[in-house]
Specification:
Strand content: 15-25%
Helix content: 40-55%
Shape: globular
CATH topology: GIY-YIG endonuclease
Number of domains: 1
Order of helices and strands: HEEHHEHHHEEHEH
């Protein structure tokens, strides 16, 4: 019983990642994991989510690291609810634009509308070494501008929550 409690506590203490993939059709997939390298490989091999299975190859375009996997899961659910335009601003590092993208606009009929970004190009074909390059980007955290620490992610989430 004690061993099971210790194991359960250790599982909740695992580092976590929230990530955004760009699929071959230009759509975004938002997920979370406690093992980024393995999860990215699963997506590329068609063993990840059903959504990405038929939209390969996928490209890692953004991720945030968290000290606990539950925080990464919470952030995943938060970002999943965002519009495409807001996700694009996050990916592009346009953090000042996030609050404006949180507010919906009303058209003349009073219906809510949202911004749409048209995708003009598809993700490049998967080339040999692409997975390794993306994994290398994950592992060199301090050099990758698209990876945000959990403290910065929490601040961004509080600033730009829907």
């Amino acid at each position: 019983m004690v061993a099971e409690l210790v194991e359960a506590k250790e599982l909740t203490m695992l580092k976590g990642w929230m990530y955004i993939l760009e699929c071959s059709d230009g759509s975004y997939y938002t997920g979370s994991t406690n093992h980024m390298e393995r999860r990215l490989m699963q997506h590329q091999q068609g063993e990840g989510a059903n959504y990405t299975k038929n939209r390969r190859p996928v490209k890692l375009v953004y991720c945030e690291e968290f000290s606990k996997v539950d925080d990464a899961f919470y952030r995943e659910k938060q970002v999943q609810g965002w519009s495409r335009a807001k996700k694009k601003a996050l990916i592009d590092g346009c953090f000042d634009d996030l609050p404006a993208l949180s507010t919906s606009t009303k058209d003349s009929t009073g219906s809510s509308t949202s911004s749409v970004i048209e995708v003009t190009s598809l993700a490049p074909e998967l080339v040999e070494g692409e997975i390794e390059k993306q994994i290398g980007a994950i592992l060199s955290l301090s050099k990758n501008e698209s990876i945000v620490s959990s403290d910065n992610a929490k601040a961004l989430g509080n600033q730009a929550d829907d």
